[in-house]
Amino acid sequence: MPQLVPFFFLNTLFYGYIGLFIILLLVSSIILPYILKISIIRNIIVKL
After folding, report:
1. CA triplet 36, 39, 40: central angle to 5 degrees?
2. Chain center to CA of 10
3. Percentage of residues in the chain having pLDDT higher than 90
4. Which of the two residues, 43 and 8, has the higher pLDDT score?
5. Residue 35's closest CA among 25, 27, 46, 23?
6. Long-range contacts of 12-19 (CB under 8 A, 24+ apart)
7. CA distance 22 to 35
8. What's 2's DSSP letter?
9. DSSP labels for 3-32?
10. Apex CA 21: angle with CA 16 and CA 24, to 5°?
């Protein structure tokens, strides 16, 4: 089935990019503010 190879490749690429985009959105909207909040709190505690 060599005629299905390009479709399989594009399908894999497409879902890979969608997965990466979703992971990037999650990291930028949830994990980064959490890390920023923790570092700000640490900074305040150290200055006390």
Report:
1. 85
2. 21
3. 65
4. 43
5. 27
6. none
7. 19
8. G
9. GGHHHHHHHHHHHHHHHHHHHHHHIIIIIH
10. 125
5-26 per-position pLDDT tens digit: 778 888 888 999 999 999 999 9
Query: The tokens of 19 are what?
Result: 């997965």
Please, what is the average pLDDT of the chain? 89
**Burial of residue 35 (number of CB atoms within 10 Å: 0-12, 13-18, 19+):** exposed
Residue 25's Cβ-side half-sphere holds a number of Cα atoms within 13 Å equal to: 6
Q: Give the three-state DSSP class for 41.
A: helix
Higher pLDDT, 9 or 39: 39
Half-sphere exposure of residue 13: CA atoms within 13 angstroms, side-chain side? 6
Instruction: State pTM to two decimals.
Output: 0.59
